[in-house]
Amino acid sequence: MRLAFILSEIASGLRRNLSMVVSVVLVTFVSLTFVGSAALLQMQINQMKGFWYDRVQVAVFLCGEDYGSATCAEGAVTGEQRDGIREMLGSDAVKPYVDSFEYESQDQALAHFREQFRNSPIVDTVTADQLPESFRVKLVDPEKYEIINELFSSMKGVDVVVDQRELLEKIFSMMNIASLVAVGIAAVMIVCAILLVATTIRLSAFSRRRETGIMRLVGASKLVIQLPFVLEGVIAAVLGAVLAAGALWAVAQFLIEGRLSREYPGTAFISTGDVLLLAPALVALGALLAGVSSALTLRRYLKV
Q1: Sign of dihedral through CA atoms 284, 289, 292, 295?
Q2: For the segment 137-191, what is each residue's pLDDT rounded down to a tens digit?
Q3: C-alpha–C-alpha distance, residues 84 and 69, integer Å
Q4: What are the angstrom distances between the C-alpha of 301 and each of 6, 11, 60, 125, 206?
Q5: CA 249: distance to chain centroid?
Q6: Where in the chain is the domain with CATH 3.30.70.3040?
């Protein structure tokens, strides 16, 4: 009987304040879409960093068959050349600049490629012989890259020396800025959503002040009186969160997986699975914000 009463009160409140409820849904939808976008952008940044970003600063790529550089004119790197490069990396002359290094074979390069580009449609078309061997070098001081470049770029068996961190930092810094902008917009929109929920609940409580007064006189508990108001805000916010999750899923499905991953097969993109992992958090966040806002508003405007 009590459950039926609470449900009827919720339905009545939603009908009476339909325009405000729709506003709450829309504002929550927009704000949580920005929150979700910022979270997905960070996932994208972390995925693009991949296996080596935080550990490798310089890659010394070795020659393969039919490489065009002058140092690869004799063909693929030989075992003697490979050992000479390894010996140079461990020598006393280079040791002050090199913190550590590791050799990556073609099979290891393929395994790392498949890990990093697992969501790309080309992941199964690349074979080990298409990827170069390399030495992945961590420098004591990243600013000393030019010294390593001068020492190794002219060695036989070395195709090219690449400062991978420098190439990536510009991209990731731009993406981090975009993520911060999304977080900032999301914070403003969340404040708007909280204020709108509070206003909606206050109007709902005011329009039903006669009913709540009667309920006080007949001895209804505080929970029974306040719960319908709180659930009205929570329901509206959850609907907005579900819409936000749906919009993010559609973007991942049709824009990222359906278009970008095909147009840029060499880039590792997030997938709809990442959105599905994020969706419960968005729903929980929407419900939490609405619940807390409603409860605080009722404490002030609905004395029981």
Answers
A1: negative
A2: 888 887 788 888 888 988 888 988 888 777 667 777 777 787 788 788 878 878 8
A3: 19
A4: 19, 21, 68, 64, 8
A5: 13
A6: 58-162
Burial class (CB in 10 A: 0-12, 13-18, 19+), 49: middle
pLDDT of residue 55 exceeding 70, the answer is: no
Say which CATH topology domain 58-162 has.
Answer: Alpha-Beta Plaits (3.30.70)
Counting every residue written for the chain, the total comes to: 304
Buried b (16+ CB within 10 A) or exposed e, 62-93: bbbeebeeebbeeebbeeebbebbeebbeeee
* pLDDT confidence tier of residue 12, bands split at 50, 70 and 90: low
Q: Which residue has the tokens 């959105």?
A: 275
Give the Cα-Cα-Cα angle 12, 13, 14 (nearest 5 degrees). Answer: 95
Taking a C-beta distance cutoff of 8 angstroms, is the pair 252, 273 a contact? no
Please spell the DSSP secondary structure of the chain, one letter per residue: -HHHHHHHHHHHHHHHTHHHHHHHHHHHHHHHHHHHHHHHHHHHHHHHHTTTTTT-SEEEEEP-TT--SGGGTT-SPPHHHHHHHHHHHTSTTTTTTEEEEEEE-HHHHHHHHHHHTTTSTTTTT--GGGS--EEEEEESSGGGHHHHHHHHTTSTTEEEEE-HHHHHHHHHHHHHHHHHHHHHHHHHHHHHHHHHHHHHHHHHHHHTHHHHHHHHHTT--HHHHHHHHHHHHHHHHHHHHHHHHHHHHHIIIIIIIIIIHHH-TTS----HHHHHHHHHHHHHHHHHHHHHHHHHHHHHH---
**What is the rounded distance in angstroms from the CA atom of residue 59 to the CA atom of residue 145?**
10
Q: What is the pLDDT of residues 219-266, one digit of tens each?
A: 555 655 667 777 777 888 899 999 999 999 999 999 888 888 887 776
